[in-house]
C-alpha cells in the first residue's frame, strides 16, 4: 500500500487539477453579480439515505480555495445519514463558497455512494473472517478519493496502483510462459532491484492452485471465477500456506456464500465502478 504521505499528495493533486478544470480563469457567474467582499453561509443537505463520505475532503477543498472559509461539521465521515440531514455548514466569502461548490458535491456524492455500497458488503460478511477489498477498477484521476471512500465504508484497500504490489494475472502468466516461470522471474526482478513488494498470483483452476503452491514466496492466491465447490477445495488445498482472495463477478447476492467457503478476502470492482451517486446539495442559508 502507498504511504500516508503519498496518499496526501494524490489528494492534493486531485484538488488542484479539479479546481483548474472547473474554475479556469475565473468563476465569471459569481464575479459578475456577487461583490468581492460579500459573505454568506451554506449547508450540505442530504437528499438520500446511506453512509456519508467526503466531509474531510470537503474541508480540504474549502481550505485550498480560501483559508478563510469556516466549516462546522455536524455529521462525520462514515456515519449513517437520511434524507433531510445536514452534514456541515460553511461560512465565509460567498464567491469562495460558490467556487468550491461543484467539486465538493461531485466528490461527496460519489464517495458517499461507494461508502454506502461498501458498508452493505461489510454488513453482509459479518460473522465470517472475510474482508471486502476494492480493485483498480476506478475512475481515472480520482482513484484516491474512491479508495478513501471504501475505507470510510468499512472495507479494505487492495493495491493502490501497479507500483505498490506485484499481481501476476492470467495475461502476465500467459505472456511469460507459465505460472512457475512468472513467479521465478518476478522474484529475481525484485531481488535485482531491491524491491520489497508482496506477490499475488491468480489461479484459473485447481490445477493452477497446485502449481502455485509448489513455489515459495507467494503472499496471496487470487481464486478467480471459481464456483463455490471449487473455492472450498482451493481454500482447503492452500491451508495456511498463504492468504486467499476470491474475485470475479461477485455480487451482494453471492458474496456471503463465497465468504462461507473460508476465503480471507473478496475483491469487487463493483464497489467503485457500479454505484449510483448519493443525492446531495449545497444550499445557501
TrEMBL record:
Catalytic reaction equation(s): nicotinate beta-D-ribonucleotide + CO2 + diphosphate = quinolinate + 5-phospho-alpha-D-ribose 1-diphosphate + 2 H(+)
Sample GO molecular function, one term: nicotinate-nucleotide diphosphorylase (carboxylating) activity
Gene Ontology cellular component terms for the protein in this record: cytoplasm
Quinolinate phosphoribosyl transferase N-terminal domain location: 28-112
Binding site for substrate: 102, 135-137, 159, 169, 202, 224, 247-249, 268-270
Glycosyltransferase listed as a keyword: yes
Enzyme class: transferase
EC number: 2.4.2.19
InterPro entries xrefs: Aldolase_TIM, NadC, NadC/ModD, Nicotinate_pribotase-like_C, Quinolinate_PRibosylTase_N_sf, Quinolinate_PRibosylTrfase_C, Quinolinate_PRibosylTrfase_N
Keywords: Glycosyltransferase, Pyridine nucleotide biosynthesis, Transferase
Xref: SUPFAM superfamilies: Nicotinate/Quinolinate PRTase C-terminal domain-like, Nicotinate/Quinolinate PRTase N-terminal domain-like
Residue span(s) of domain Quinolinate phosphoribosyl transferase C-terminal: 114-283
Biological role stated in the UniProt entry: Involved in the catabolism of quinolinic acid (QA).
Name of protein: Probable nicotinate-nucleotide pyrophosphorylase [carboxylating]
Native source organism of the sequence: Marixanthomonas spongiae
Gene name linked to the record: nadC
Amino acid at each position: 500500500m502507498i504511504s500516508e504521505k503519498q496518499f496526501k499528495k494524490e489528494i492534493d493533486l486531485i484538488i488542484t487539477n479539479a479546481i483548474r478544470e472547473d474554475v479556469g480563469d475565473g468563476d465569471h457567474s459569481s464575479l459578475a453579480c456577487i461583490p468581492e467582499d460579500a459573505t454568506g453561509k451554506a449547508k450540505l443537505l442530504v437528499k438520500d439515505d446511506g453512509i456519508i463520505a467526503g466531509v474531510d475532503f470537503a474541508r480540504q477543498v474549502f481550505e485550498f480555495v480560501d483559508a478563510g472559509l469556516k466549516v462546522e461539521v455536524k455529521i462525520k465521515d462514515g456515519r449513517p445519514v437520511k434524507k433531510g440531514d445536514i452534514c456541515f455548514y460553511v461560512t465565509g466569502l460567498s464567491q469562495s463558497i460558490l467556487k468550491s461548490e461543484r467539486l465538493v458535491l461531485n466528490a461527496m456524492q460519489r464517495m458517499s455512494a461507494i461508502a454506502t455500497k461498501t458498508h452493505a458488503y461489510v454488513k453482509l460478511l459479518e460473522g465470517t473472517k472475510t474482508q471486502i477489498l476494492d480493485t483498480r477498477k476506478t475512475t481515472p484521476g480520482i482513484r484516491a478519493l474512491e479508495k478513501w471512500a471504501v475505507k470510510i465504508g468499512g472495507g479494505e484497500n487492495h493495491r493502490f496502483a501497479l507500483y505498490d504490489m506485484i499481481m501476476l494475472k492470467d495475461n502476465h502468466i500467459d505472456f511469460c510462459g507459465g505460472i512457475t516461470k512468472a513467479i521465478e522471474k518476478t522474484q529475481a526482478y525484485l531481488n535485482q532491484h531491491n524491491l520489497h513488494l508482496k506477490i499475488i498470483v491468480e489461479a484459473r483452476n485447481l490445477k493452477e492452485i497446485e502449481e502455485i503452491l509448489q513455489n515459495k514466496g507467494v503472499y496471496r492466491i487470487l481464486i478467480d471465477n471459481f464456483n463455490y465447490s471449487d473455492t472450498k477445495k482451493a481454500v482447503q488445498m492452500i491451508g495456511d500456506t498463504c492468504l486467499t482472495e476470491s474475485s470475479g463477478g461477485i455480487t451482494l447476492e453471492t458474496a456471503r456464500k463465497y465468504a462461507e467457503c473460508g476465503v480471507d478476502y473478496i475483491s469487487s470492482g463493483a464497489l467503485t465502478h457500479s454505484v449510483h451517486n448519493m443525492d446531495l446539495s449545497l444550499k445557501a442559508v
